[in-house]
From TrEMBL:
Transmembrane parts of this sequence: 12-31, 43-63
Protein name (Swiss-Prot/TrEMBL): Inner membrane protein YaaH
Membrane topology classification: Multi-pass membrane protein
Pfam families: Gpr1_Fun34_YaaH
PANTHER family: INNER MEMBRANE PROTEIN YAAH, SUCCINATE-ACETATE_PROTON SYMPORTER SATP
Gene this protein is translated from: yaaH_1
Source organism: Mucilaginibacter gotjawali
PROSITE patterns noted in UniProt: GPR1_FUN34_YAAH
Source superkingdom: Bacteria
GO BP terms, alphabetized: succinate transmembrane transport
Length: 90
């Protein structure tokens, strides 16, 4: 006999919150080291700010919204963290 109860689909995607929060933290540390005068603004800090700090947070925010996680969706929207880091890195 065929079971009539629905089987929930398994989500094979890991939690994207650590990616987004680590991207925000690492980019903030690098930009603060530049602001403190330890390093000049070179291509490494600029690339980390744009790609790791900005693009990774956009991807993590989209994945978090698709997973419908109620805690992570407000923390990682693409416009809050990455929108504030992209102008600061240039």
């Amino acid at each position: 006999m065929i079971p009539t109860t629905p089987v929930p689909a398994k989500d094979g995607i890991a939690n994207p919150a650590p990616l987004g929060l680590c991207a925000f933290g690492m980019t903030t540390v690098l930009l603060n080291l530049h602001n403190a005068g330890f390093f000049e603004l070179n291509t490494m800090i600029l690339a980390m700010g744009i790609f790791y700090g900005g693009l990774a947070q956009v991807i993590a925010g989209v994945i978090e919204s698709k997973k419908t996680t109620h805690l992570g969706s407000p923390l990682l929207p693409p416009t809050v963290f990455s929108g504030s880091l992209l102008p600061a890195s240039s």
